[in-house]
Amino acid sequence: MSAGRKILIYPVILHPEDQGYSVEIPDIDHGTWTQGETMKDALLMAQDAIGIMLEDKTEYPQATKIEDIKVKDEDIKTVVYIDMEEYRRNNPKTVRKNVTVPEYLVVLGKKQNLNFSAILTEALKNKLEL
């Protein structure tokens, strides 16, 4: 695993419903909820909810120790993990960025029907070694 990766692990509580599970994520935004039709779906939805809530953050909430999580008899406590770098790569949020480039490159690029956004994205990834 590379040193720059940020793996987060948070406890979740699965609440069995008549159909599927509701999922409580106590440490995210003072309690975040999601749901899934199966246990697998519920855990994947919890992972995605964490990614959505934390994608713009650089500091993350402290995870509660799983032994400190209190549940009712039918509830299930477990953990989910998320690799925030991988999440951001797989769920990129795009932003508009104005750039200045030499006019002759724009003319040549348009003649070849180049996608300037794709080229800039690729160049940035190469420069950042991503």
From TrEMBL:
InterPro entries the UniProt entry points to: HicB-like, TTHA1013/TTHA0281-like
SUPFAM superfamilies in alphabetical order: TTHA1013/TTHA0281-like (SSF143100)
Domain HicB-like antitoxin of toxin-antitoxin system positions: 10-106
Top-rank taxon: Bacteria
Source organism of this protein record: Companilactobacillus suantsaicola
Name of the featured protein: HicB family protein
Listed transmembrane segments: none
